[in-house]
């Protein structure tokens, strides 16, 4: 544990930022609805966030190369904290979209800086433990921070001030970290054509998951509020989806390491589709049924990105893991840009339950693609399958940390 001590400040900063980022996603939907913004406006604001996030992933390495890790982190954190306060000072749909675009850019940059720092500061023997801690922090911080909303209330200035303070306080552990300025990583090279050639199924899967998960995270709170759930229940609803995902990822990964991974991907997608269809017939006033179903939905829907990435890595060459990881993250982000607004338009026309009609349609299309690919290409032999890796959708650099931590293919 002593060898990990220099990285503890970075992991603390990661907890603060991951919590603040997860908190904003739910709060923006709730506060926007209370300000009279319709689902399409909230969906467009979510789309703007993911557009900024994608650009941040691509361009932040240039900033790091110019001014280093610490100054990049300070610049992005200060900007993100200011943007958070601007949300409550300027309550306007266009302003919110622009602010969220900038916030997405900043958070993508902050996660990239941290993951580059963790990768540089971790020895080969410690990297797996660092990665495990980072994953635990992600789930715990995002889930726990949601409950600040009912504590402070979504209305007024206080909750936005708390979020701004969280982002600002992330500067403290970074500023006192022992490792001052590690080597800046090489720029992320995106070879989308090569990634598509390696696995069209994984590429389509990540776009599909981006569409559905982006829609759920952005307008899921709107669905929960419009069916009559209280603020505390809305937060619980969103948190249970995250918890379901966290508990099931590794059992699914274990199975996919031993079966044809596409079969696990197919069955999990069918599970997500069935849950989506079930939501269409669920009594809105029964909160416990909603809680139970969203838990199962999260358990099926959220791991699809990691399963798709694992399938692509099975087919990738020895030195193509990072290339594939970055490209699939790009595909996911493209889907996440499209999903929130498209889902919000459907909700405006057909009502809140249409969110899950929309996701069910996307899953049905992906199921069709999966069946076609399984019928046209052979499975990857067991000896060539790499170990399953739970992939976080935080930056294009996460694949570098994950690949070094999880080792070579099974044999």
Q: What structural class should be given to the helix and strand makeup?
A: mainly alpha
Number of structural domains: 1
Specify the biggest β-sheet.
none
Inertia-based shape: globular
**Total beta-strand segments:** 0
Which fold does the CATH topology refer to? Growth Hormone, Chain: A
Low-confidence stretches: none
**Spatial gap, N to C terminus:** 30 Å
How much helicity do the residues have?
Answer: over 70%
Q: Taking Cα atoms only, what radius of gyration do you get, to the nearest Å?
A: 20 Å
**What is the tally of helical segments?**
16
Give the name of the CATH superfamily. MFS general substrate transporter like domains
Q: Could you spell the SSE succession in H and E letters?
A: HHHHHHHHHHHHHHHH
Bin the strand percentage: under 5%
